[in-house]
Amino acid sequence: MRHAILGAGGIGSLLGGALSRAGSDVVLLLRRETLARHPRRIRVESAVLGDFEADVEVAVELDREVDVLWVSPKAPDLEAALALTPPERVGAAVVVPFLNGVDHVGRLRESYERVLPGAFRVESERVEPGVVRQPTPFARVDLAPGPGSDDVAEELRAAGFQVEVGLDEPTVLWEKLALLGPLALTTTAAGVPAGMVQAAPEWNARLMACHREAVAVGAAEGATLDGEALESLLATPLGEMRTSMQKDFDARRPLELDAIAGPIVRGGSRHGLATPATEELIRLIEQRLG
Questions:
Q1: Quick check: helix, strand or coil at residue 269?
Q2: Smallest Cα–Cα separation from 17: which of 61, 72, 64?
Q3: CA distance 54 to 31
Q4: For position 157, what pLDDT does the model report?
Q5: Phi/psi zone of residue 28: left (φ > 0), alpha (ψ -120 to 50 degrees), beta?
Q6: Are 44 and 134 in contact (CB under 8 A)?
Q7: Distinct helix (H) and strand (E) counts, the chain
Q8: For the purposes of burial, counting CB atoms within 10 Å of the CB of 158, is it exposed (0-12), middle (13-18) or buried (19 or more)?
Q9: pLDDT at residue 68, as a whole number
């Protein structure tokens, strides 16, 4: 299959390198200032896929037919990134977003015909253009069922990723958010790795309370979530793992605060569900931002 990747950060670069190594055609869509510094090659250092290098093509906009368009910029960068992939160029390609949160799906469907939501559970960071590091022993993709999902899943498996096709779209999106949201918010509010959040009773209580709020809102939004199983995952020792929001905070980059916390709070308001833990974490992060 032919792939275009919009957003060559930690997720997009890992994905592009793995797909290229597996023999697929891959083009990275980059801003002009980034393209000038990109080596047209991706070096991957991965706890799951191993260490390798793979050649990729680069372009400043989608200039060819592709079968899959992967959308992986951070939420604050989405609108600017979409200028590189006009709908008439994307055509009937399957559009697979890996953004955090849930609201981006509706935005993409305003522009593209075939949107197949996905969730990528991975810690991956672009160290510099063309170099990506994935230090933790998990890299799982969940895809919503829909047109193209089986073919996309096979491409990802061939590239070395664990892949599951979920029950339905709300479950795929909210299962990730119920895990990611609490971790991102608590690690950023506390300014410490996930393992230290788990070890501190006050912060662990916030983590679990936020998680339960997300599960409740997700269920109200139509997701089928196993709260006990998800809680056991959050209780798994996470050591020095740092979330992308925490890394963005430390680097003084724009935060995905609304994309991650907003659906929980807004969904709670729609369904009459209280979300005090999530709202407290938003306030604590805003206080740190000053």
A1: helix
A2: 72
A3: 21
A4: 97
A5: beta
A6: yes
A7: 13, 13
A8: middle
A9: 98
What residues contact residue 34 under an 8 Å CB cut-off, 6+ apart? Answer: 8, 129
Distances (CA, A) of 206 to 76, 126, 264: 26, 30, 15
Amino acid at the residue 23: G
Average pLDDT in the 137-156 region? 95
Angle ∠(165,119,177) on CA atoms, nearest 5: 120
* β-bridge partners, 69: 4, 95
- Locate 271 and state its tokens: 């369904």
Q: Are 211 and 231 in contact (CB under 8 A)?
A: yes
Q: What are 175-194's pLDDT values in tens digits?
A: 999 999 999 999 999 999 99
Closest CA to 52 of 159, 139, 140: 159
- Determine how β-strand 118-122 pairs with β-strand 68-71: unpaired
| Beta strands per DSSP E along the chain | 2-6, 25-29, 41-46, 50-55, 57-59, 68-71, 94-97, 114-115, 118-122, 125-128, 131-134, 139-143, 162-165
- The rounded distance, in Å, linking the Cα atoms of 236 and 19 is 30
Give pTM, 2 decimals. Answer: 0.94
Helix (H, G, I), strand (E, B) or coil at 262: helix
Type of residue numbered 167: L
Q: How far is CA 192 from the centre of its chain?
A: 21
Going by their DSSP bridges, the two strands 57-59 and 68-71 should be labelled as unpaired
Q: Give the Cα separation of 20 and 239 in Å (integer).
A: 31
